[in-house]
Amino acid sequence: MNDKLTAIGKYNEDFNNYLSYNIKSSNIFQSSGLEKHIIKRHPDRLKYIGFIPQIIANPDYIGINPNEKVTSFELVKCISENVQIGIKLDAKDNYLYVATLHTITDSKVFQIFQIIHRLLFLYPKRTTLWLQQKNSRLETGAVRSTATQKKPCSRTAPSRKSGYITLITQEDIQKAINIEAQCHSPRTVRNSHGLISAVMRVYRPNFALNTALPKKVRPEIYIPSDAEIKQLLSSVAGTGMELPVLLAAFGPMRRGEICALSSEDISGNIVHVCKNMVINGDRE
């Protein structure tokens, strides 16, 4: 290893949650040539060189430049400007070093929030962990509609980077919800926002959401005539479907409640409604 290298920070293994790497905790080095590089390429940014240890220890943003062919990542800290450092892995001697330092605009930083409404894609490990912890308490249909949606709205351009959750603002979420409302039903949008809200409560408990959501659409319910009901009852008489149809036609029970009903729930002429059956994430 070059003896002109100085250790200025430690790689945080939590970064692996946002990168496609599995790097172990180790020193990050700065070479004596970094200052010369900044003077040559970004002279006005030399004043930020002393902030490098702070950026490594507590970045506001982390991502990968897809144009880099080597193992590398970028950290951003919002100081007076958005200061970005590029860190690379030396393939020969297997150590991490700061390769560059410069600033980036707000517009580039906040591109990541164009797909905030698909939080599962931005923060898959955090959100999946939250779902695993809360699954038993949630309405299964709501979990399924969020977890199984495979693509973000086609009207949003995917970002080239993933970001820290600490940068998200109410305005970012409102813009994303407005975009999602253009191509998804109000219920799907509300489920997506519910997931964002729940995850934010865990990781940013002091962040209060006040998002304007699309209005609920009143469903058009078809009410069959007496003649149609009589025809249906005649068709199922004496079959295994007779009791479920009778419960649906004349009792206040939903489809899932009827499907979950067992003989243990019936006592004389009393039906105890205490279970519900829904489709799970595997469509079963």
Keywords for this structure?
alpha+beta, 8 strands, 284 residues, 11 helices, single chain, 3 domains, YaeB-like fold, two-stranded antiparallel ribbon, 6-stranded mixed sheet
Structural overview:
The protein has 284 residues and is α+β, with helices and mostly antiparallel strands. It has three domains: 5-104, YaeB-like fold, CATH 3.30.2310; 110-203, no CATH class; 226-271, no CATH class. 34% of the residues lie in helices and 15% in strands. The protein has eleven helices and eight strands. The strands form two sheets. Strands 1-2-6-5-4-3 form a six-stranded mixed β-sheet. A hairpin with a 2-residue loop joins strand 7 (266-267) and strand 8. Helix 6 (140-147) crosses helix 8 (186-203) and helix 9 runs antiparallel to helix 10. The model is unreliable at 111-163 (pLDDT under 50).
Question: What's the arrangement of secondary structure elements?
Answer:
Blueprint: E1 5-10, E2 27-31, H1 33-41, H2 52-57, E3 61-63, E4 72-78, E5 82-90, E6 95-104, H3 106-109, H4 119-122, H5 124-134, H6 140-147, H7 170-181, H8 186-203, H9 226-236, H10 242-250, H11 255-259, E7 266-267, E8 270-271
Parallel strand pairs: 2-6
Antiparallel strand pairs: 1-2, 3-4, 4-5, 5-6, 7-8
Describe this structure in a few short sentences.
The chain is built from eleven helices and eight strands. It is α+β, with helices and mostly antiparallel strands and 284 residues long.
